[in-house]
Design brief:
The chain is α/β, with parallel strands linked by helices and 291 residues long. It contains 11 helices and 8 strands. The protein has 2 domains: 176 residues, Rossmann fold (3-Layer(aba) Sandwich); 86 residues, N-(1-d-carboxylethyl)-l-norvaline Dehydrogenase, domain 2. Bound molecules: nicotinamide-adenine-dinucleotide.
Length: 291
């Protein structure tokens, strides 16, 4: 099955990034969000990012051709004939379950339904539908236009045929698929990454190292493009918190419980880039304030 039309629920950081890479790959996109501001911001961010790709000579088509492939809709009626629907709303089980129920009703029988969840079991979303065999996880990494990988996650009911459609789709938009054969909390890559992020926060809590030094050290010693706190501010502290809680609730393993400093920052609204303050502070134009 070749994916020609995709319906995306959630026009935030991830949904807009997914819309962009699909449009750049020739796929027609319908972008849906309950918030008009989110749609407007999503479209603005996409236009900016596509311009950057074009400036660097990384795209063959012009900006207008790419942006014209993205339409918006504030209800699910245009999901009916989509080949694939991807959900990228907040990391809340009940909200995602509601979206899957609605997608199942709105989409034709053959539409594949995917979630970009960071940690919620795919089985819990598939079970909301009459087509659990056609439900899978496609977990992109942020920023989607730059990160060359996506996890393809099997729920208990997902068929191999659906997994292979996911694998082909991810390849068709220029990313490397990583197969995850069971929807364990955190899947493969976050399952490895979460404990190290938690440890970094605890070391700051205990006054053993600073945010700046840990980020610098992780970049220089381990060749990472960004340290855990720089990544955390980009991802959103609330998103990290939600993913850790989902992992903790599923496993009851205290290794995944969000540290106090992260919990307090989320309560205080220090969510990273999006609120101008997280692990670092940011100017109006998004640049980091000098420390
Ligand atoms: N941020 C990351 O780095 C990252 C990485 C991988 C996966 N994820 C996962 O992707 C999902 C989205 O994360 P994000 O960072 O894009 O969040 P975000 O907060 O930037 O965007 C979420 C969007 O969902 C919209 N939304 C909420 N309820 C809705 C509804 N009922 N119908 C339609 N839209 C609705 C919101 O208005 C918002 O625009 C989460 O499950 C998250 O765990 C995030």
């Amino acid at each position: 099955m070749v994916i020609k039309k995709i319906f995306i629920v959630g026009a935030g950081l991830m949904g807009s990034g997914i819309a962009q890479v699909c449009a750049q790959s020739g796929i027609n996109v319908i972008l849906n969000d309950i918030s008009k501001e989110a749609i407007d911001k999503g479209l603005k961010d996409i236009a900016w990012s596509v311009s950057k790709f074009i400036e660097k000579g990384n795209l063959r088509e012009d900006k207008e051709t790419i942006l014209n492939r993205i339409k918006t809709d504030d209800d699910f009626s245009s999901a009916a004939d989509a080949d694939l629907a991807i959900e990228a709303v907040f990391e809340k089980l009940e909200l995602k379950q509601e979206i899957f129920r609605k997608l199942d009703e709105a989409c034709q029988q053959n539409t594949i339904l995917a979630s970009n969840t960071s940690a919620i079991p795919i089985t819990e979303l598939g079970s909301m539908t009459k087509r659990p065999e056609k439900v899978l996880g496609i977990h992109f990494f942020s920023p989607v236009p730059m990160m060359p990988v996506a996890e393809i996650i099997r729920g208990i009911g997902t068929t191999e045929e659906t997994i292979l459609i996911g694998v082909d789709f991810v390849k068709s938009i220029g990313k490397e698929p990583i197969r995850v054969e069971s929807d364990v909390a955190g899947f493969l890559l976050n399952r490895i990454n979460f404990p190290s992020t938690i440890e970094a926060i605890r070391l700051v809590e205990q006054g053993i190292g600073t945010v700046e030094d840990i980020d610098k050290g992780m970049r220089l010693a381990f060749g990472r493009r960004m340290g855990p706190f720089e990544t955390g501010d980009m991802v959103g502290l609330d998103v990290t918190y939600g993913a850790l809680m989902a992992c903790y609730e599923e496993t009851k393993d205290p290794r995944f419980y969000p540290p106090q400093l992260l919990r307090r920052k989320v309560k205080a609204g220090h969510l990273g880039h999006k609120t101008g303050k997280g692990w670092y502070e940011y100017n109006e134009d998004g640049t980091r304030k000098a420390g």
